[in-house]
Design a protein that fits this description.
Elements: H1 5-16, E1 48-56, E2 63-74, E3 77-86, E4 89-99, E5 105-110, E6 120-130, E7 133-145, E8 148-157, H2 164-177, E9 187-188
Antiparallel strand pairs: 1-2, 1-8, 1-9, 2-3, 3-4, 4-5, 5-6, 6-7, 7-8
Keywords: Signal
Signal peptide: 1-24
InterPro entries: Calycin
Length: 192
């Protein structure tokens, strides 16, 4: 059976080239919306299935049908099953988010052999409140490697399709929080 470690290193190499440009990562704590930065933010309300709408992530080149299923969300962190299709081939990886120094700030890694090789400082930039939980979220990750900042951004909603105005609003909140992004630079999810 082939080792997953070379595959993990390939993913690491690809990720290092993604959205690299600025020399340093921003202060993630300062990127949280007022809701995420308040006592009203409840990670357990993230539980459930979301559909990725927009992303910036080199590891998703060629992917379609991206979903995120938050299976565990508590003060101990998040566990999120990320499912995609690469062509006709389905692929699932569990992402683990260990809590950081402030609420909404995490360290993300893949739950797989070699997953500890790439740990991404991440922040829940914003959530959209809904009935009984959050209807949408924006997560930003940034890691400094070799003097470059490598970035990842995910915008996801409970609904398979989101209105353009809602996505524009979520992108604007991310921009206001300090994420250097605009709607045109993000990749939309390819339909299934």
């Amino acid at each position: 059976m082939p080792s997953l470690i070379p595959a993990s290193l390939s993913i690491l190499t690809l990720c290092l080239s993604a959205w690299a440009g600025a020399a340093s990562c921003p202060d993630l704590e300062g990127m949280r919306s007022s809701l995420v930065n308040s006592s009203a933010f409840d990670p357990s309300l993230l539980k459930g299935l979301y559909y990725e709408q927009l992303y910036h992530d080199i590891a998703q080149v060629g992917a379609s049908c991206q979903t995120l299923d938050v299976t565990d969300a508590s003060a101990d962190g998040l566990s999120m099953d990320f499912k995609v299709k690469y062509g006709p081939i389905p692929f699932t990886i569990t992402e683990l988010y260990a809590p950081g120094s402030s609420q909404g700030v995490y360290t993300k890694k893949a739950d797989m052999p070699g997953g500890d090789l790439l740990q991404l400082p991440s922040v829940v930039v914003d959530v959209t409140e809904g009935e009984g939980g959050y209807d949408a979220f924006t997560i930003y990750s940034c890691l400094e490697i070799g003097g470059q900042a490598v970035r990842e951004l995910v915008i996801a909603t409970r609904e398979p399709e989101a209105a353009k105005e809602d996505l524009e609003s979520m992108v604007q909140v991310a921009r206001d929080a300090g994420v250097d992004v605009d709607l045109d630079s993000l990749k939309p999810v390819k339909p299934c």
